[in-house]
Amino acid sequence: MEENNNNQNNNNDNNNNKKQPGGFNSIIGGVVIAVILSIIFLMAFNTYKSSGEEKVNYNEFIQMLEDGNVKNVKIYEKKIKFTPIFEDKNVENVTYYCIRTDDYRLVDRLEKADVEFTAVDEGGNAILSQVLYYIILIAVMYFITMLIMRRIAGGSGGIMNVGKSNAKLYDMTKNTGVTFDDVAGEEEAKESLTEMVDFLKEPKKYLEIGARLPKGALLVGPPGTGKTLLAKAVAGEAGVPFFSMSGSEFVEMYVGVGASRVRDLFKQANTKAPCIIFIDEIDAIGRSRDTRHMGGDSEREQTLNQLLSEMDGFDSSKGIIILAATNRPEVLDKALLRPGRFDRRVIVERPDLKGREDILKVHAKDVKLDETVDLKEIANVTSGSVGADLENIINEAALTAVRKGRRFVSQTDILESIEVVFAGKEKKNNILSADEKSVVAYHEAGHALLTMLQKNTMPVQKITIVPRTKGSLGYVWQAPEEEKNLQTKAEMEADIVITMGGRAAEALKFPSVTNGASNDIEQATKTARAMVTMYGMSDRFGMVQLEGITGEYLDRRRVLECSDETATMIDEEVRKIINNGYAKAYKLLSENIAILDAIATYLIDHESITGKEFMDIFNQVTGGVMPKVDKGDSLTSGDITKTFKVKSLAEKTKEKVKAKVKKAKKKKEKDKDKYKVFASAEFEKRRDELLNDDEEIEPEETAPETTSETVAPVENETTEPKEEENVDSTESDSQDGESKPKMPWE
User: Fold this and answer.
1) How far does the chain reach from its first CA to its final CA, in angstroms?
2) Catalytic residues
3) How far apart are CA 678 and CA 499, in angstroms?
4) For 16-38, what is each residue's pLDDT tens digit?
């Protein structure tokens, strides 16, 4: 707090010093502009007033007076104004005037014509009122002019100071500034700037050997990594004045203002040397002057040209260092980046595991922590975070502890603050219905289960189906076991399968899928496209780069660098990878449906599951025996969907119904065959003849042959079926012709 007050006082003193020389000039400029505007206003007003007057000769006035065509007359010192009487209504408001002459009979003429007339006094009072009128008019114009000019100049003291630099000056000579101890996680960047600090402290040992101070250093990195803080630390370590200004502050609506402010900034720096000039977001004025990066702005180009000229012109032996920061080094002008201007480029990257731990220690040194806090674990689960994120996490944890009425921050508070920073606060009023809750639970359970059924995955930290303010209805939080800089193809494919697990679980358990997998599809498509176009992980395309990246430290937007035909093939390859990932996820979940049901059921009841609880449920269902981990083919090697058909719940239900109908039909046919009479064709023919003929049928000399098939009893017989009899055709023939086969109905 004391440091901020000292810096603020220094800034106020600097601003006061800047306003004093230009204050008188601002007043003169305002008065001049106000007088000019007043004259213009008066001329316009007089022109407006005279637009309703018409000049006539004096003899014409006398003639109109004698003819009775004058309504009233006003006699001035040099003019006579009168209003004529017209029959035309359109010219009633026109006033006529004539130059006054020495006519001693004028009053007699007016009395004779019976016209109202008055004499207007233009003596001292009239002159005084006219002077006051002009003074008041000029004062009003001055006030309006100064108000507009202050608004345009951004409060820099008026129009005369619009070209003055409004850089903030921090006096670091009193050891009240930021030092390298306040910057953690950027050891390489600090080492790159140490020589500059040492040169500012002891320039003689460098000058004696003939070395010169680098004129400038460009700090490049993602937002929030601490580029501005690092620049302040350089000034704090060196103990020299620190001028801080944003690139957008150089540009105003007036052409040439930016160049003037650049000159004034370097002029102030020369008076404070040795010192440091820091220009934040230099891409606002240092953008390339070609048409590829939106060049052609004359004001920006003039400002950039002046900056290049000043960087070439000042003497580095005086100890003036220029530090600049940007997130977009690819759009900067090549002339600005050449040696002799910005001699060094310092990369300020995202911190690693050790860097994140050090940053957490810096931000937590003034926060009361209890014994449960493990900053190393927090650093491990915040992979990819920058310094600004970590500072926000510690602050949110402190606010959470105060909100819960505790005096110390616990590990639980910090973990909860991580979710708040990256996923948003819980939506306490957004209550999911029972059906939606079930869908979300199975969706997230599908993601989590696939982390256990595959290799090359990160362990689960937490599963939740509590809606958050940033749009998610639930999420699975995975934390890496160790810091990794590279990602293998197998890990990318496992990630794609995991992201497809939510949609696969929905298709496996519900009649229709939902739109909840939109973000999963986006992430999986982005990973698959990078594998094909950038990482050379596709068997079809091989090691060919098909996409470039713009905005390396911002959005990392990809731009295709191939023909339309190749782009079509890329889309086909990406679609194949996504479909294979989905089929693999569906197959794994369908083979472990009992584990999926157990996790989802527990999640519906408790809404959140920790990583330990997830493993307990998994081991309870599996009995401590790990299921067979998938070691299938790569997602890019072939089409998995040809060997494994993904079926929805509706299709599987339809197949089950068909199987039941087929089974019932088969059983019915089996029961029908149980009571069927088996006989030969000759036997059937003979039976039909006997039934259709009323007369007694004489037996033939030779009896028909009987088959060896078993004759079953008819349904209305009460006797038990007889045993099978094999009747030979030779035995059925008798010489006397009296014997015949025994029929079932006899």
Assistant:
1) 122
2) 444
3) 63
4) 444 444 445 566 766 777 777 77
